[in-house]
Amino acid sequence: MKIAATKDMKLALESELVIAPVFEDFFPESTKGALGSAGIPAVASKVGFKGKFKQVAFTEANGHFFLLIGLGKRGGFNHEAFRRGYSEAYSRLKESVGETVAILLPGIIENEEFEAVYILKVSHYYFDRFQGEKTTFPDLKVQLVTDKGQEIVEKAERVAEATNFTRDIANMPPSRGTPSLFEKMARELPGVEVTAFGREDFINLGMGGLEGVSRAATEPGKLVIMEYGPKEKKPLLLVGKGITFDSGGISIKPSEAMDEMKFDKCGASAVLGIMKLASDLKLDRHIIGMMPLTENLPGGNAYKPGDILKHYNGKTSEILSTDAEGRLVLADALSYGVEKYDPYAVIDFATLTGACVVALGNNIAGLMGTDDNLKNQIKKASSKTWERVWELPIDQDFMDQIKSDVADIKNTGGRPGGAETAGAFLRHFVGEKPWVHLDIAGVAWTQAKTVKTPYLPHGATGFGVRLIYQYLAEN
Ligand code: BES
Ligand code: MN
Ligand code: ZN
User: Fold this and answer.
1) Ligand number nearest to the C-alpha of 294
2) What average pLDDT score do residues 407-421 get?
3) Ligand 1 near 70 CB (within 6 A)
4) Are both 40 and 178 inside the same structural domain?
5) How far apart are CA 131 and CA 459, in angstroms?
6) 30 within a domain of the structure (yes/no)
């Protein structure tokens, strides 16, 4: 696919297909010129196209072939409506015969160019590498009609590619998407320095959480650390939970939907994708990406309920459930990263709790943390990218709920406030650093049975990549 920005409407209209936005109650200036003075309105009314939200129609007029996109009423139109409307149209490009496509924009909200390109690329991603029959789209040559230049198109392409890269590794089957694969992919990123710790290092460094959780794994567990950018600047530290398969361990999960626990590596996948993006865009920022990676499996040598593990910062945790493993590996990564790299801020991504899914559903991630400034920066970035977040509290009551009788803390506080007690657990490992924890358990992948976002067809969503790009662009 090639995407070029053009100011030349006439030239764009020579494309085999013209994608044009239509509202129910308003005709954008930007489309009026498309066909002389009557423009798109005449085309739409000819075929009785009302512009209802997500309605699409192919039609021919004046020798041009149009794909009309219904965007509903102008009032309430926002970025997400833009994305959902355009992705509806983009999904029809499979049926289209042509390979040259012009995209017209409504010209009424900020950053439409970025959205149009980003959504085009993420809606054409399919995880079909294990299928004989591929989901193919024509190799499109796209012209985006805009007064802006090519730079915004290229930025959006890079962000979309990094999102799809994240989705691709997160979608990998558990016996393929191993800690070693993550390490290999990290080592392929230009300009990224990689260090990988294994079991021996976990033991020598006193990373009891990683040691315990990885003990019964057959795929070697790893802590992969990626460093990018100018070292004289204080870094941003990103940490992503990378459980490549979460069976629950000795506290084994019910077998129903256990396949979905291949997605328990989505946090690490997001961090890997963000490092790729930093490298692709040659960002002038110092970023550390850490991925604690291991399977969580049962076995004769597995860590057990009742065990007490000692983490990198010396704190001990009593294991009440081996299925609350994510916080144990994050504890070591966070405390090591904070001590070793002295970051100005810490952000972690983790498919951490089912409780977060119950609380916020499948379109909103749980946001926790201690620093109002950092929390607000992430919230603001999120309001632009529509990777939605909602704050959950981790105050003293939740800290009290995980106090242990035999260790410093315990790895579950029971069912009440399950997302918050997990956040409170992590709080013990970030010291005084500004820190935000994102529980992405509900948003990291889509299931057939839950709310679907049309531009993210199925499987891993890549949540977090665009959010952090936006955060970095704004701060
Ligand atoms: N990876 C799971 C969380 C999860 C479950 C994410 C379902 C998405 C869907 C995590 O390791 C886990 O098992 N958490 C337990 C914690 C409990 C034992 C305190 C949970 O949420 O049930
Ligand atoms: Mn678990
Ligand atoms: Zn897990």
Assistant:
1) 3
2) 98
3) no
4) no
5) 15
6) yes
Strands (E), 62-197: 64-70, 100-103, 141-145, 192-197
Which residue's alpha carbon is nearest to atom 14 within ligand 1?
353
CA neighbor of 4 nearest in space, from 83, 91, 101, 96: 101
Atom of ligand 1 nearest to the CA of 354: 21
The model's pLDDT over 354-382, given as tens digits with 9 standing for 90+, comes to: 999 999 999 999 999 999 999 999 999 99
Instruction: Kindly give the distance from the C-alpha atom of residue 383 to the centroid of ligand 2, in angstroms, as a whole number.
Output: 30
Report the nearest-CA residue for atom 5 of ligand 1: 354
- Are the C-beta atoms of 93 and 103 separated by less than 8 Å? no
Query: Which of 55, 469, 460, 429 has its CA nearest to residue 280?
Result: 469
Q: Which helix (H) or strand (E) holds 295?
A: strand 287-296
- Residues recorded for the chain: 475
Tell me, using a 6 A CB cutoff, whether residue 225 lines ligand 1.
Answer: no
**Are 374 and 434 contained in the same domain?**
yes
Could you identify the residue written with the tokens 């490009």? Answer: 93
Alpha-carbon torsion (313, 439, 294, 158), positive or negative:
negative
Q: Enumerate residues with CB within 5 Å of ligand 2 (an ion).
A: 246, 323
- What does the pLDDT look like over 112-130, one tens digit per residue? 999 999 999 999 898 999 9
Q: Whose CA is nearest to atom 16 of ligand 1?
A: 324
279 lines ligand 1 (CB under 6 A): no
| Average pLDDT for the chain | 94
Do 369 and 260 lie in one domain? The reply is yes
Is residue 215 among the annotated active site residues?
Answer: no
Q: Which of 327, 388, 410, 427 is catalytic?
A: 327
DSSP one-letter code for 221: P
Number of domains in the chain: 2
pLDDT given at position 44: 83
Regarding whether 186 and 102 lie in a shared domain, the answer is no
**Which is higher by pLDDT, 394 or 137?**
394
In a domain, 154, yes or no: no
> What's the gap in Å between 415 CA and the centre of ligand 2?
14
* 327 tagged catalytic: yes
Taking CA atoms, 188 is separated from 6, 183, 275, 286, 456, in Å, by: 34, 9, 11, 18, 26
Alpha carbon distances (Å) from 360 to 241, 272, 419? 20, 25, 10
Centre of ligand 3 from the C-alpha of residue 144, in Å:
42
187 shares a domain with 75: no
In short, whether 323's Cβ falls inside 6 Å of ligand 1 is yes
CATH of the domain at 342: 3.40.630.10
Nearest CA to ligand 1 atom 3: 353
Q: Which two tokens stand for residue 131?
A: 């299928």
Q: Which amino acid is at 337?
A: G
115 and 182 fall within a common domain: no
Of 356, 361, 284, which is closest to residue 327 (Cα–Cα)? 356
